[in-house]
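Translate structure to sequence.
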């Protein structure tokens, strides 16, 4: 299954059904379910920027230390990729449109750049 590494707290916002767009500088033709991997790194400045933006749209995210990092945190379905969107979460250049997001039990896993493949069932059983 394809996975995509996303920095927190953006990953939390996606898997909890708030953020319907994942912004990238590159386009994708991938469609369908993808695992959401929370990157290990997260700076205080990144957290604060996301925290204040989320508050502006009425969402309170967990505290810095309560966000899981360095593993699979959920999944979502990519339905499209666009270079514009009316979503308040779109910051361009490209936005991967996301639906059916849900959290999954945390699974520590090393992330990678771009999409990467995980045999999720095998890893969960392992």
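Result:
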């Amino acid at each position: 299954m394809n996975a995509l590494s996303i920095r927190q707290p953006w990953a939390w916002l996606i898997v909890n059904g708030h953020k319907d767009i994942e912004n990238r500088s590159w386009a994708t033709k991938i469609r369908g379910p993808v695992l959401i991997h929370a990157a290990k790194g997260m700076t205080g400045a990144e957290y604060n920027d996301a925290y204040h933006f989320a508050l502006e749209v009425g969402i309170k995210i967990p505290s810095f230390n309560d966000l899981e990092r360095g593993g699979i945190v959920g999944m979502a379905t990519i339905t499209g990729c666009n270079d514009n969107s009316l979503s308040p979460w779109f910051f361009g250049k490209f936005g991967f449109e996301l639906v059916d997001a849900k959290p999954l039990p945390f699974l520590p896993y090393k992330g990678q750049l771009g999409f990467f493949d995980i045999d999720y069932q095998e890893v969960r059983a392992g």
